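User: Here's a chain of 552 residues. Predict its fold as tokens.
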Amino acid sequence: MGREIKGLHEAAYVLAIFALLSSVLALFRDKLLAFTFGAGHQLDIYYAAFRVPDFIFALIGSIVSASILLPFFIESFSRSHEEGKSFSDSIFTLFFSIIILISIIILIIAPWLVPFILPGFAHDPLLPQLILAMRIMLLSPIFLALSNLFSSLTQMRHRFLVYAASPVVYNLGIIVGVFFLYRFIGLAGLAVGVALGAFLHMGIQLPFLRHEGLLPKFTANFQWSKIKPIILTAFPRTLTLSANELAEFIFISMASLLVAGSISVFNLAFNLQSVPLALIGVSYSSAVFPTLSKLIYDKNTSAFLQKMITAARHIIFWSMPITILFIVLRAQIVRVILGAGKFNWADTRLTAAMLALFIVSTVGQSLIVLFVRAFYAEGKTAKPLLINVISACTIIILGFSLVHIFNHVPVFQYFIENLLRVDGQPGTNALMLPLAYSIGVILNTFLHWVMFEKSYKGFSKPVLETFFHSLSASIIMGYVSFICLRAFSLVFPLEKVWGIFMQGFCSGIIGLAVGVWVLIMLQNKELQEVWKTLHSKIWKVVPVPPAEVEHL
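Assistant: Prediction complete.
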């Protein structure tokens, strides 16, 4: 777990492997929730209880994230271990104290706060359980904030395995809550599982930090001169994340006023579309971020641009075909992963439709993560703030507007329901929320791209070449998969889960094979690079001479 990993693709693939494992556990977690509750009232309460803790984490915990602290840690520890350690102790003491204080305040005012921000539950008989679950979950932003701080130190030493394993144990903790604790203490048990997962997310990094002498501790000797630049740098980023979190917060508040189960379907679909984002966008962005920070520190802008081009090309290369496959195979994906127990066919149809609307912005979401990391590596936090505020406002306005249009314009409602094959399904007005979200994300991506191209000329041309290669292959792949779905519906029994799985799996495999063939015909550069990387064993990669080492 403490092994150092060098090389962009090697680090990205290691992170992707653990992201895949974490995603599998997350899907198993959602499977348990869907099986136990279905898309109904109790699951709505569970997801609603997350909103305040998540917002606290975005508001405070994000300040100590790796994208903010890593450049400062690299600079401090490069001078001396003692200076870096004193700096990390100051950060730990200040922000741990702040998040504890805010959590205590929220804990006290919860009975008045929850009915106000979630009006759909204001007169609900289960409101006391919602408040209790939220209070227990207030432990999670504390543990996750500490984990963010610790992960900056582990990434600084290139220990990506420790960093990558954190989300895995986080999901294990939640699964314990769903599978065991719920049986004894009800919804509170689910909340305890979330808190346990957050503790494990933090705790898995402790042995390495202790061994390396990097474990922060309380100190009264604040280095205010060094903390002030972090606050000034982090404040725009915190507002950036808070703007996005606020948009989701308002959507959940709106969903609480819609048909029961709307919050559940929204979150289940959002979690499914987050899988490719975690596997690709987050993995590549996390792997390249230390390198970007080091190149900016060394004032090597040409190498910085080349790293960004490489990361963006591979993000698009992987994200595009997954996006198309998710759209084509959405019903099979949702039914196989979530369809069992109390999660019925009606829930499947609505979740699949939401998934299709979310997934169209996956490429954009992945690129946004990369662009934001690049701007943060430069210390430019104002640009992402401005863009994300515009995007969040757009999402919120579109959410209200589209729901109103959907409810009052029958032609628009008929078009959406027939396009996504949910005609006759109750609660379809909730589909306007992911539609508004994806439109806002696409706008966000476009603005980030324009801003980055303005600063670094020459970024767009090679990346757009990859975009059109991948898009062309993906469209052909999606069409072939769609045709195969119809053919395999005559071969496999679709009333059985294994039959639905085989229909989707075989269709997807054939589509992927055709997509790869198209890329080979186009002599796609990314495919060649992936093939070369996979032929070199990650754990046997020989470091190049010190002058050429990629610092990750």
